[in-house]
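hiii, so i know i said id send this last week but things got crazy w the move. better late than never?? heres the sequnce for the chain we talked about at the cafe, plus the structure i predicted for it. fair warning i was half asleep when i ran it
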Amino acid sequence: MRLPLLALLARGPAHGYELKQDLEQLLGAAYPPTNVGQIYVTLGRLEKSGLIEGEEIAQESRPNKKIYRLTEAGQEALRAWFEETADEPRVRDEFFMKLALAPRTGLADQIALINRQRREYLNTMRNLSKLAATEDRDNRMAHLLIEGAMLHLQADLDWLERCQEELEDLR
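okay and structure toks below
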């Protein structure tokens, strides 16, 4: 959450609730809802580390609010983040660990595990399809997020099919 908040602050000062709304508007309903409390905790940590600075703004009929702005150090951290590549292979996959360990325990059937996981992926794909149909057509980022999730799910389904074929050949 740290770096996405810095990225949102790069366009100008904002308070925590505005950042929450901006993130949700940008990513749409497919992205898990952001906890505003977590945003404020993260903003506090970013401020302590010198990546942002906050300024209390007095409000007449409401409690004061704090507006945050990016510091030069925050801009540098953000530039470095954009330069990094996302290298996250899913080698530590919980489902695969279950699949590999099931025969050693005698408590679960590998094919049953695959079928259950396949049903879960298909249900998720259906839900994402429904979400895509209801998402604002102009929100290209939300649609790209949904499309990316569906492509990953399709790849996971293909991999499950491959696992099942391999395991059936061993029987």
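btw The CA atoms of residues 28 and 132 lie 10 Å apart. thought thatd interest u
miss u guys!!
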